[in-house]
Amino acid sequence: MGYAPQVESNSGYRRSTGSPRGEARRQELLERVTDDLAVNGLVDFSLRRAARAAGTTHKVLLYHFDGADDLLRQAVARLRQRRIDHAIASLSEERGPSTLAERVRVVWPMLMGEEPGLARVLDQAMGLAMYDPDRHRELGRHASAQYLPILTSLCPPEWSEDRKRGVAEMILACLRGFLLERLISGDRAGVEAGFESLLRALEREEQISAGDE
Question: What is the pTM of this model?
Answer without folding.
Answer: 0.76
